[in-house]
Glutamate--tRNA ligase (Vreelandella halophila), 495 residues
Amino acid sequence: MTVRTRIAPSPTGDPHVGTAYIALFNQCFARQHGGQFILRIEDTDQARSTPESEQAILDSLRWLGLEWDEGPDVGGEYGPYRQSERRDEYRAYAEQLVESGHAFYCFRSPEELDAIRDARREQGLNPGIKGDLELPADEVRRRMDAGEPYVIRMKVPEEGVCEIEDMLRGTVTIDWTQIDCQILLKSDGMPTYHLANVVDDHRMGITHVIRGEEWINSAPKHRLLYDYFGWDMPTLCHMPLLRNEDGTKLSKRKNPTSIDLYERLGFMPEAVLNFLGRMGWSMPDERERFTLDEMQAEFDIHRVSLGGPVFDQAKLRWLNGLWIRETLTDEAFMDRVGDWWFSRDQLAPLVPHLKSRVETFSDIAPMASFMFSGMLDVRPEDFQHRKLEEETVRRILQFALWRLEAERHWSRDTVFADLKALAGAMGLKLGEFMFPIFVAVAGTPNSWSVVDSMGLLGPDVSRARLRHALNVLGGFSKKQAKKVEKEYAALETGE
RNA sequence: GUCCCGUUCGUCUAGUGGUUAGGACACUGCCCUUUCACGGCAGUAACAGGGGUUCGAGUCCCCUACGGGACGCCA
C-alpha cells in the first residue's frame, strides 16, 4: 500500500504557520515512506472562503519550500482537489446514509437547538445536539414539499464507547454520550468538514491522517462514518498544538501567525520551516539546523513529543540568523536581500514619494527606513498631539486595528476607504484621525501618505504596528476594553 | 458544566528501569575585538505533587494538581 497523506487548508484567512506545521509533518511522513503528499482545499464554508485566500495559502506553502504531488494547482488523478467542486458527491453520500438508516433529515430551528443545548447542559451532559430528533417519514416528506430548510444529521449510538487508535497516543476511549448527531449536510447543500473530509480522504486514497490535536474529540464521528460506509479508516495521528507564550493555542491576537509576515520581515523560508520542524520534534542527533531534505531523510513520526510547544520568536530569530550566517554565500546574500525588498519591483512604488522629497540620495535612508523595518521603536510621547487626548488616540488606534483586521481585500484604496469612514463615524477630521496612524506605521507624522505605506507594507506588518503602538500606549484594561468594544460596535452599526 | 489530551531548566528539546539528568534559545560573566555583532569558554536553571510496582524509577501503574483542547449549519 502506498502511503498517501494530505494537508487540507480552509481558505478563510491569512496563510497560518499552523497549516504549514501540519503540512510539513504530512509531507515528511509521505516522503519517508516513498508515498504521496496531497493538498486539498476545504472551501465548504461558502461565506468565508475566498479565492484570494486560497491563492495566498498556496503561495505561502510553496514559498516555504513545501511540495505537494497533487492539488488544485498541479492536478492529479483524484481531483477535483477543491471541495466546492465536489458538492454533488457529498450530497449523494449523505442521502445514501439516510437511506441506509444511519442519518436523518432534521428541521429544527436555531431556537429549538439552543433549547436542546441548554437542557442538556443543565442535566450535566455534553451540550451537543442529541436525543429524540427524528421525525416520522410522512412528516419529513410534508416539510420538504413545503420547502422548509433542512440539514442531514448522522445517527450516533446512545451508549457504549468508541475506541480510537492514535499513532502517538495509543488507544483513546471516548464515550458515545459525548458525541452529538453531527450535521453532515448543511441547509445550503454543502457538506460539513466531517462528511467532506471522510469522503475525500477515502476517495483520494489517504492512508494516514496527520492533523492537529483539536480534532481528536471528533474522531469518533469519523470512525462512525467510515463504518457506515464500509470503508477502511486511515491511520490517525494527532499532533500537538502550537502555543502562544501564555500556553494557549497559537492565535494571531497574541502572536504573528501569518506566514506572509515572516516573509515580509525578511526571514528565510528554510529557517521558518526548520523552526517548525523543531516544534515537538527533533533530529536523532539533536542538531538545530537542518534542511527539509534532511528532515525527510531522518523523519520518524514517533519522535514527536506531545506537550504543546510554545512558538518562541526569539529562537526563530536566532535560527534565522544562523541560516543567514552559515548557509548564504555573499553572492546568495545579495540575491536574497535584493529579491526580498530592494528589487526594482519593490522599489518602484516608492519612487514617486522619494523623488519629490529628497535633495540627495542619502536622504532616502532615514526617510524610508520604516518601509524596511519590522516593529518600530515608538514611545508614548511620540503620540502626543495638541488637539487629541491620549484616550482618543488609543481609540483611534484600536478602532482602526479592528476595522483593518476585518478587511479582506487589502489595498491602498480599501485601507483609505476604511479609515476615512471610521474618521467620519468618530466625528474627527481626517488629518487629526490619521496622526496616530502615521506615528504607529511610519514612526513619525512627517511622511508621505500613510495609506500608501500601508498598502505597500501589507496587512500583516501594518496591523502588527498598530497593535504594537497600542501596547506602547498601555492598551486598555479589561473593564475599558468592554466599553470600547461597545463603542466600536455602535460606530459600525450606526453607519 | 461534560469529556479528551498533555506535564523534563523561563522556552525548544534529549532521555524508552541503573545518567554527575545532556544539548539549544534566552539570561549572566569572561575571552577575542577600536565599538557592536559573530565566535570561543564558563555559569545560573528542570524531571508538577503524592502513592504504588521494582534491588533500583524522569522512564511502568494509580490518584491529585495544573495547563491545553473539544463540545457551531467554522474548519
In short: Residues 435 and 462 of chain A are 15 Å apart (CA to CA).
